[in-house]
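Record now logged for everyone:
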Amino acid sequence: MIMDRDGVAEQLEPFRRELTAYCYRMLGSAFEAEDAVQETLVRAWSKFDGFEGRSALRTWLYRIATNVCLDMAPAAQRRARPMDLTSPCPAAAPNLAQLEENLWVGPVPDERVLSGDPAEVAVGRESIRLAFVSALQKLPARQRAVLILREVLAWSAAETAELLETSVPSVNSALQRARATLGDRPATGETFKPLDETQRSLLARYVQAFESFDIEGLKRLLHEDAVLNMPPYQMWVQGVVELGEWWQGAGCGCAGSRLIPVAANGEPAFAQYRPAEDGEGWTPWGITTLEIVDGRIATMTNHMDVERLFPLWNLPARLPAEPRA
């Protein structure tokens, strides 16, 4: 019988977003996740005539996606944040050496990985937080898969064992080892509540202080031990005093920036544009994700791979100069 290839594609496409979320948690990169999902769907499409319904279509797709991710993530060097790799540097003497993109956990647009009703989206935000995805990268790939399937996606041990083609005791053992490696789950800050007036007020004050480059105002919004990461730079800065020195020194180029709110990693986030060198408007500088703890900003991570990241959010390549009054 001739397979209806278009019909197969229509059956597979609805799974793209949840598979992208799964692969992102596995790989720590939006771009690698999209590549993994595309490969998954291509393999499924090409082998669909051999899929005889012995398992649910969703389970079969996750098995393919897991194998794709395992093939893509064999390296000992796993993705991380600068704060996961080195000690903080003094603001007055920052180490501005850049490391390869494949070392860093990158951001992901919410719309590419979250779907469902508001309750489902709220739960999904928790499992794509930058701190949590970074912590997952500490695990061997198969343990990572087990933890995600069991604790994020709420698959049973039997379902997970079937997917990974192993035994239930092996799954339970891998889960125990993964939990032991991670210990207590990393603090990922407060749940992002876009309609919460307290959070909206904090973020509005952050935008106002940043765009006016009111350093003292910024410092009042931060935790005492707040952190600034800036991949691909391996440097990171910690503490209100150091951050104030950073903005007054090496970070002074942020003066005059504009911030555009975006949805990234289930957290408050902004696209930062710095004044264009030609004086005409503003040009991309980074995607900044924020972690909020106890009503203050605890972590700022500025992802600076703008040539790829800004198109991912469909952001303009330049903000035009404001018309003169």
Observations:
- The mean pLDDT is 90.
- Strands lie at 222-229, 236-238, 258-264, 267-275, 282-293, 296-303.
- The CA atoms of residues 10 and 115 lie 18 Å apart.
- The first strand starts at residue 222 and ends at 229.
